[in-house]
Amino acid sequence: MDNPVVIRVTEVAQTLGLATLRFNFRGVGSSSGVHGGGEAEREDLRTALGVLAGHLPVGVAPGLAGYSFGAWVSARVAAEGYPVPALALVAPPLQMRALDFLDRTPGPTLLVAGTRDQYCAVNDLERLGQRLGAEVAIIEGAEHFFFGKLFPLGQAVERWLQRWSA
């Protein structure tokens, strides 16, 4: 939750007046528990979404944004039918974990990665975006951690958030 990419996406959402919640999966940072390979982390995410939903007005469902492994977990939770109105997947690690299980998206979906991302090839991301009918944003020169490219990442996320959150 203290990763610069996660912080940047959160800052952009907060600037637009959206409620946000960042958390670590079990076993990350000072969180208790042990990494569960994705299964346990899906439960972590569903629990976090439930907590956030409890603080939102009735009838308002939280959107979902995930980065790297968190993007894969977010896609899994959305594919399993958790009611999220929008989904942002930042640098999903497609070279390590395919998103073949994702055959539809819950609503407006953003896929974003850099041209130098070693875990998410641009052509794979674009094919996924075309298959899902998702918006694809490619950040020129950015690698997986967006060093020196957090501002353009924020701009891409902000444009997408402005469209669906209005």
Topology of this protein?
Layout: H1 4-15, H2 39-53, E1 64-67, H3 69-79, E2 87-90, E3 109-114, H4 122-132, E4 135-139, H5 150-165
Parallel strand pairs: 1-2, 2-3, 3-4
Helix pairs in contact: 1-5, 2-3
Please give a structural write-up.
The protein is 39% helix and 11% strand. Helix 2 (39-53) crosses helix 3 (69-79). The chain is globular. With 166 residues, it is of the alpha/beta class. The protein starts with a helix and ends with a helix. The chain has a single domain, classed as 3-Layer(aba) Sandwich (Rossmann fold), CATH 3.40.50.1820. It has helices at residues 4-15, 39-53, 69-79, 122-132, 150-165; strands at residues 64-67, 87-90, 109-114, 135-139. It has a 4-stranded parallel sheet with strand order 1-2-3-4, with helices on both faces.
